[in-house]
Amino acid sequence: MPARESESWKTRSRKRPRPSNRVLTAFIPAAPFCAAFLLGIPHMAKVYIYGMYGLGGRLFSAAMEDIVAAELRRLGNVFVAPTLGYREWQSIADYINMQPRGSKSVVMGHSMGAAAATYVTDVTRVDLVVCYDNAGQRCSGIANNCGKLLDFQDTAWTFVPKFRPWAYPGHERKIFRTQVAFGHTRCPQSTELLGRVIKEVKFLIN
Fold first, then answer.
1. pLDDT given at position 32
2. Residue 89 pLDDT more than 90?
3. For the chain, is the Cβ count within 10 Å smaller at the N or the C terminus?
């Protein structure tokens, strides 16, 4: 099991952007989602789904919104939030805590967004975490706050063991690993992997 990261590393790697940056990088895409909560629209959903881009946003991770989120929105009884930047994991945790009692939550991410998806489990419960080829920063350890994690590792780009999702003792069976070779930026475009995600979301709905 990888050692716990030092507090200084956590503070440095998870530092939230300054307010001026948040307006530019997060508030605008998140505005429809915030408005929906205020209006009560998503309160009919059984499953709430949140996604995060990796470094570079849509430049390298556009498929997280254009393919993965778009297809999940076709399902009934789900609410899929607009995809946010990887630094907005704390905002996603706040949104999860606003969900109706008894609803389920899914957090997905690509590259650095995949690691950020595990950070959400540090502060709140997530039923399903989906990591599309994590890279660039270490994941948090999986424990009581995570129900299940899908780890999609793409070996066509690079193999960096220290970036792979990991679990604390007693929680190792929550991680389900799949190796593919599509290429790092093409990983979220895979219909095969999307099918896996849809299957898990349908299970949560039922």
1. 52
2. yes
3. C
Question: Do you know the residue count of the chain?
Answer: 206
Q: Identify the structural domains of the chain with CATH numbers, from first to last.
A: 45-205 (3.40.50.1820)
Show the tokens assigned to 54.
């990796």
Residue given tokens 């099918």 in the structure block? 195
Largest interatomic CA distance in the chain: 45
The confidence score (pLDDT) of residue 155 equals 87
What whole-number distance in Å separates Cα of residue 155 and Cα of residue 160?
9
Q: Token pair for residue 121?
A: 């489990």
pTM of the model: 0.81
Q: 174: which 2 tokens? A: 């929550």
Bridge partners (DSSP) listed for residue 187:
none
User: pLDDT tens-digit profile of 18-59?
Assistant: 333 333 334 444 555 555 554 444 557 999 999 999 999 999
Two tokens, residue 117: 């998806």
